[in-house]
Amino acid sequence: MVSNLYIGLVHHPIYDRRKEVVATAVTNFDIHDIARCARTFGIGGFFVITPLESQIQLVERILCHWREGAGSVYNPTRKESLSLVRVTRTIDEADQAISGLWQKRAKKVATGASPHRESVSFEFFRELLEDRDTPYFILFGTGWGLTKEVKDDSDYVLAPIEGKGYNHLSVRSAVAIILDRLLGNRINSSE
Amino acid sequence: MVSNLYIGLVHHPIYDRRKEVVATAVTNFDIHDIARCARTFGIGGFFVITPLESQIQLVERILCHWREGAGSVYNPTRKESLSLVRVTRTIDEADQAISGLWQKRAKKVATGASPHRESVSFEFFRELLEDRDTPYFILFGTGWGLTKEVKDDSDYVLAPIEGKGYNHLSVRSAVAIILDRLLGNRINSSE
Fold first, then answer.
1. Which residues, other chains included, contact A2 with Cβ-Cβ below 8 Å and sequence gap of 6+?
2. Residue pairs between chains A and B whose CB atoms are closer than 8 Å
3. Which residues pair with A8 in a beta bridge?
4. C-alpha distance from residue B145 to each of A121, B22, B142 (Å)
């Protein structure tokens, strides 16, 4: 069954530590870790979103190494997970790719470490995903997180992962936990 | 409340891709990501286990930078999470540190990506942790995983994270998901 959940890892527009809007550099570990999570939980696709030409080329080089180059022979499981990755210049470009594939507008779900006035629970989102005719596009911010505009422009904002007074997980850990909460546990019993 | 769960990230003895027993190099991202998870979920401590002198020095240098050096000023939340980290040469040395602190033998719990004959469920382990008088030491393997001997020597082996026919998560993602399954969700309602 084709998954109706897609991941976007946003490198622009996001905040830096002074809450200025910037474009962050791509982190190699993000691509690998998130692609492996995406493959584990059967995600439809993983979009690395960056407008910077140098970063686009970096991602393409990494993908080429593991999907076609020496890496694909050295570690075929990495080839398998990285086959889910695409690079786009903007959130919109990724959004249009998903919406085009489904012939239906994808619903955007923003995430963040801080509480949000109108956030939805994991349980609520998990139930939404059961509507298999609608694609969902979940956005994760790098740096100091997604901008207010990206959140305002999303259909939903997901509740933060609550810790014991500490909300500074890496985006890699946040993706792992959120995908497990949305798609984990029931995997074996549902299919 | 002091947590009774401790994490060990094992760099030796573990398997390499040919199932030979080796010592892996320490990965900087592992230390940061796992320490941040440990702090988020209120873990008692995080032991980086490596017998290699060069790797011990590398970890100490990273810890020093973020706990006392320029990093502690640049990013105080990192100082907070990395304060949970200690380096030991062996699993036993970490085990003894925990058991000494608690004046009681810590129970060891091994993890792995493959099914194990006698593995315990996440729910079972979650209930075990409610016995607040007993410390538990959960071990994660780097490379191709913990050796058979380490698993045999543990009190329990935890069930693997089940994916859709793909079990190749990074150890960072596995730690994040497992801690959330053991200590997440209920954090807000229980305290």
1. A44
2. 112
3. A47, A139
4. 34, 10, 6
Query: Rounded to two decimals, what is the model's pTM?
Result: 0.95
Query: What is the arrangement of strands in the sheet containing A156-157, beginning at the earlier edge strand?
Result: A85-88, A45-49, A5-10, A136-141, A107-110, A156-157
Distances (CA, A) of A71 to A6, A36, A61, A77, B76: 25, 15, 11, 10, 37
Angle at A125 between CA A123 and CA A129, to 5 degrees: 115
Of B128, B135, B134, B131, give the one whose Cα is nearest residue B98: B135
DSSP for chain A reads ----EEEEEE-SSEE-TTS-EE-PPP-HHHHHHHHHHHHHTT-SEEEEE---HHHHHHHHHHHHHHHTSHHHHH-HHHHHHHTTEEEESSHHHHHHHHHHHHTSPPEEEE--SS--TTPBPHHHHHHHTT-TTS-EEEEEE-TT-B-HHHHHTSSEEBPPPP-SS-----HHHHHHHHHHHHHSSTHHHH-
Interface membership of A33 toward B (CB under 8 Å): yes
Joined tokens for residue A66: 């593991």
* Other CB atoms within 10 A of residue A191 CB: 8
Whether chain B has a CB inside 8 Å of the CB on A90: the answer is no
Distance from CA of B92 to the nearest CA of A (A): 28
pLDDT tens string B80-111? 999 999 999 999 999 999 999 999 999 999 99
Assembly ipTM: 0.94
Judge whether A89 and A59 are in contact, CB under 8 Å: no
Degrees to nearest 5, angle at CA B142 with A187 and B116: 45
User: What letter represents residue B1's amino acid?
Assistant: M
Which residues of B, range 49-88, sit inside 8 Å of A by Cβ? 77-78, 80-81
How far apart, in whole angstroms, are the C-alpha atoms of residue B163 and residue A183? 10
Give the confidence band of B117 by pLDDT, cuts at 50, 70, 90. confident
